[in-house]
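Lab meeting minutes (informal)
Scribe: AK
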Amino acid sequence: MINKRSLWFLTLFSLILVLSVYYITMPSELLLTTNNITEDKEESTETVSTVDEGESAQLVALRVEAEEEMLSEMDELKAVMTNSDSSTKEKNEAFNKMQELNQNRGTEETLEKKIEDEFALKSFVKIDNSDISVVIDSTKHDKELANKIMRLVQSNFDTSMNISVKFQK
């Protein structure tokens, strides 16, 4: 005899299975129209951004530029993934590239936090393959500080990276 727990498990498992099959077999055109509707809603809402008072306008501009660049690249990759004409290989490459972009963004934020914690400096970090650009919000141009920042950044990677540190106010 089936007890209540087994019956609930079978019911929920069946529901998840049916929804998964439905999602997989759903036509790509439906996904595209759903994405367009949500994008239109996002564009129509007003966005209010707050700027940290301790951060310079140049760092904010760099962050906005990097964010816009990443979003446009993500949109291109999403288009490749949802395109029914794309091959499986192209879709896999687009998915891997999206994961890499997300991972790089997380690493950038981690490095910025470490620089702020260790040196009490606001910074902007941009990772592009094996090149890492660090912009420090400081008028003091110190070679020793730049060297320490480079070592801190390099300590987060297994392979040798090309790290550049720029001071600006």
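Next up, CB showed the second protein from the same session:
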Amino acid sequence: MKWRSISISILVVLAIGIAGYLFNSTESPKGNDSIPGTGIAIRLYYYNPANDQGPGGVQCSKNGLVAVERVIPETSTPLTETIKLLLRGEISQEEKIQGITSEFPLAGVSLISASIQDGVATLTFSDPQNKTSGGSCRVAILWAQIEATAKQFETVKSVRFVPEELFQP
């Protein structure tokens, strides 16, 4: 009888722990390696037009995306910090020599919030100057960069942009 009480207590503690983990809907992406003492290894997706050539030139597709490695500080909001870093558009001289480019940074564009619920990352942006608009090629690449960067986290299956008017040709 004593073992049964202990077993039930252990199951209750485990259930509470699992429930707490599952119901955390703000931001708990997984899939990146923590580097003890230095931070979390992440990838930012920039663009290399040389990798995206087809009939008539640049195809404005995901084929041109290039992952670059970065490390962010340990944080409980790695998706937020990763997207904010992407928006800064910091490309090293070596990456530029390799042909890697980005339209980021865009004046006035900022990430307001990021959350993950049922595999959907909802990214809310501020774009008071409509800098995310433009030609269909440009906005397709901007969209693809953010989407690929967010989807590196295994809990992110799709990305939703708010407001929906962002990234319009």
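CB comment: The first helix runs from residue 2 to 22.
No objections, moving on.
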